[in-house]
Amino acid sequence: MKTRLYSPKYVKEIIEKYGFKFSKSLGQNFLIDGNIVRKIVEGAGISKDDYVLEIGPGIGTLTEELALSAKQVVSVELDESLLPVLDETLADYDNVEIVHGDILKVDIKKLIDEKLNGGPVKVVANLPYYVTTPILTQLLEDSQLFESITVMIQKEVADRMVAKHGNKTYGSLSVYVSFFSEPQIILKVPKTVFMPQPKVDSSVMKLDIKKELPDVDRDKLFKIVKAAFSKRRKTVLNALSTYGFDLDKEDIRKDLILADIKPESRAEELSLEDFINISKILPPLNI
Fold first, then answer.
1. Domains, the chain, ordered by start
2. Percent of the chain with pLDDT over 70
3. Which helix or strand (DSSP H or E) is residue 84 part of?
């Protein structure tokens, strides 16, 4: 029986064979637990009809499980030194293609059109902690290209992403994620299942993309959200009036009341719908 890539013994052998050095700057941590690998793919709902975009395959541990479950997998890998490793570890799978590149610079729509049958696509990724937010932001901006996004990220970030208004961990990231998707934590992952072992635990998030997004000026909405959370201890009235929007405080007060928002409320008390209502009533912003 073929040795699976998540075997710690195999991971050590392949690393030694290619003289691979883990890069701290790239946040490289390889999964070495088959149970976790299977649960990620199962939680992502991958079936033989699915086209999958993977980000950061490493040596192909998760890629292999995706290949066994999906119709087609395209994995984008930034580290050039891993390309010959992946050529070997995934040689048995003809439904996998490795693309060398930086996901933040890749034309994702073109990639999907050319290599993933034009979609719809499910994204699955074990994201490096240092670049989690930029990658998720880009993916969500292109959310209508995807059916779902399943990512392993730092536990603390996952907790913020799923937080609801009224919760202390609720913030601008929570609002941003909930605008585009329905987020849920599907798996908690201890740091002990990685090589090398990171300092913190992780969580696997599944973001089910909303088919229809709210009809609102997104740029204006997210500026208001950022302003409101920039001074969490202040009321939303004070936060918005001192942020630099060049709006009169009394006018903001009246607009908040029109939006059915108490001016003395704090940002963490406001739902996505509240922020949308505020953005529709406030006049154009100068920032």
1. 8-209 (3.40.50.150), 218-281 (1.10.8.100)
2. 97
3. helix 83-89
**Smallest Cα–Cα separation from 109: which of 149, 145, 135, 157?**
145
Task: Please report the DSSP string for 224-271 in residue order.
Answer: HHHHHHHTTTS-HHHHHHTTT----HHHHHHHHHHTT--TT--GGG--
pLDDT at 107: 96
Quick one: which of 178, 147, 134 has its CA closest to 160? 178
Conformational region of residue 278, where left means phi above 0, alpha means psi within -120 to 50, and beta covers everything else: alpha
Q: Which residues of 68-86 are buried (b: 16+ CB within 10 A; e: fewer)?
A: ebbebbbbbbbbeebeebb
Q: What distance, in Å, lies between the first and last C-alpha atoms of the chain?
A: 61
Q: What are 122's two structure tokens?
A: 């499910």
Residue type, 183: P
Q: What is the pTM of this model?
A: 0.91
Of all residues in the chain, the percent with pLDDT exceeding 90 is 76
Residue 212: how many CB atoms within 10 A of its CB? 6
Report the 10 Å Cβ neighbour count for 94: 9
- d(CA 256, CA 282) in angstroms, rounded, equals 8
